[in-house]
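[agent] plan:
  1. take the single chain provided in the ticket
  2. run structure prediction with default settings
  3. attach structure tokens to the ticket
  4. add a short note for the reviewer (M.T.)
[agent] executing step 1
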Amino acid sequence: MNAKTEIAAEAEAGEDLYYAVHKGIRLANARMLIALGRLDPADEEAVVDTLTALSAHLDLSLSHLDHENREIHTAIDARCPGSSEHAAEDHDDHLHAFGELRRLAEDVASATVDRPACLRRLYQRFALFFANDLLHMHEEETDLMPLMEKNFSNEELAGIHQRIVQSIPLPEMIRYGKIMLGAASSSERVAMVTGMEMGLPSEAFSVLMGGIVGKAWQMGDWQALDRAVN
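[agent] step 2 finished; step 3 output follows
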């Protein structure tokens, strides 16, 4: 593996389309891997709950992939033709992995005496997907994002980000919010929530935060938010 380990200073400036959501996806992938590894194949209720969570996780992963294809790859290819080719190939591999994971999950759900073996195959395949996704996200952050910053103004990048956000329905945005805020540092979390409060109508902000926390939430109650997303 030859992943770039030095991050250019300019890659940390301006409107970053990847870092916050990728932190959330890394956290969600890690939690999912742990849940699959700990799952007792004889606990039917736990199996159903975990496989349901896996399906929702794959749905969110597919949503993120679609956002990147539609908004980021289209934009950068218009100015630097072919520059998203490698990332697009990775996305095709992701789609194949999603299909395999769903089939393996179905095997676990329907299995009887061979359920432990089916669960082990699902766990190992998810671990492999997770490993590949880590490298893929790193390459997007260190190769594709600097190219975007070089060829787009910060205002244009902010517009791309805004279009992505506006395309996400509320239930899905709540799921994104939980993993992104859960993966953020305390200072990042404050900045993200403050930014959402400034950018959304007050009623929409209240509904979003209530969905994330699970109850009515007052701005500044950081302890309640920490408990909800950690």
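[agent] step 4 note for reviewer: The first helix runs from residue 19 to 38.
[agent] ticket updated
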